[in-house]
Specification:
There is one protein chain. The chain has 280 residues and is an alpha+beta fold. It has helices at 2-17, 27-55, 68-99, 136-141, 144-159, 162-175, 182-201, 207-217, 238-249; strands at residues 60-61, 64-65, 104-107, 110-115, 122-125, 131-135, 229-230. The protein has one domain (1-278). Helix 3 (68-99) packs across helix 6 (162-175), helix 5 (144-159) packs across helix 7 (182-201) and helix 7 runs parallel beside helix 9 (238-249). The chain crosses the membrane at residues 34-57, 69-90.
């Protein structure tokens, strides 16, 4: 019976991930749709496996024998989750330790760490309280107004705690990379995260100046960044770059408050736990 539960969760997870990633709708609709399709499949697998481990390798459920294979399979899955989490946390810790070796500087009343690379680069790196890292090249190519706009973008990332939340999303991405559309949804969430920071920054700085800064910085191609790093200088294909600029120029707006009705789907994740009383 436990194996049936695992197979059911796998079918649900694979089915949801098989839904084509849509770019239709406004920012909020795309964000909610992509986040649901990205989060629900791995979370239903995790809650199902945890319920099976809680019930144990022995006993019966609805008259069917609970075998040890599904129990040990679930335990192996949880161990793999722990391994990936430890690996990502260690990489993030190493990055933060490296940042402490960079010289500090105050720019427009903002504390930053200067990195010595020949690329225009700026990013928040860390967890709940990330550090802002910036290259001298970026300081050289942007004027005061453009730099103010870029810093406002980075402050928006800090406001939304993007480094913290995307660390956990990146962990789920790594653990379930075998699920369909994982990378496509991940890239969509990265784009929507940057659009959110752009729109938040546009509340305090000129949107056109921010768009000009984006065009200036985006000329340089960078390697994909870790999940604990968020920044204005992330690499973007031309179509995604144009989407960020369009959102700024067309005065797109952010939702005023969280959509609690939308998040009610989280209650469905408790479904596997409802089977625990039937185990004996």
């Amino acid at each position: 019976m436990h194996l049936v539960m695992i197979l059911t969760a796998l079918v649900i997870a694979w089915g949801l991930r098989s839904i084509p990633v849509s770019t239709k709708g406004d920012w909020e609709q795309r964000w909610q749709r992509s986040l649901f399709c990205f989060l629900f499949p791995p979370l239903i697998l995790i809650t199902t496996v945890l319920a099976i481990i809680l019930m144990g390798a022995h006993g019966e459920m609805l008259g069917l024998q609970a075998g040890g294979f599904s129990y040990w399979l679930g335990l192996a899955f949880i161990c793999s989750l722990g391994f990936h989490l430890g690996k990502l946390a260690y990489q993030a810790w190493l990055s933060q330790q490296k940042i402490t070796t960079y010289p500090e500087k105050s720019i427009q009343n903002t504390k930053v760490n200067l990195i010595d690379i020949d690329l225009p680069y700026i990013a928040q790196i860390g967890f709940w309280q990330p550090k802002l890292v910036i290259s001298q090249v970026l300081l050289n190519i942007l004027d005061e107004n453009q730099l103010e706009a870029v810093l406002a973008h980075e402050k928006a990332h800090l406001y939304y705690r993007d480094t913290f939340y995307f660390f956990w999303l990146g962990w789920l991405r790594t653990c379930t990379s075998w699920l369909k559309n994982t990378e496509t949804l991940w890239e969509e969430l990265l784009l929507l995260r940057e659009i959110r920071a752009d729109l938040e920054a546009a509340k305090t700085v000129d949107a056109l100046t921010l768009a000009e800064s984006l065009l200036t910085v985006a000329q340089t191609s960078l390697q994909p960044t870790p999940c604990f790093e968020v920044g204005f200088s992330l690499p973007l294909p031309d179509n995604r770059l144009s989407q960020r600029i369009d959102a700024l120029i067309n005065n797109a707006t952010l939702p005023n408050s969280p959509n609690l009705v939308y998040w009610s789907w989280l209650l469905l994740l408790l479904t596997p736990w409802a089977t625990v009383p039937f185990h004996c």
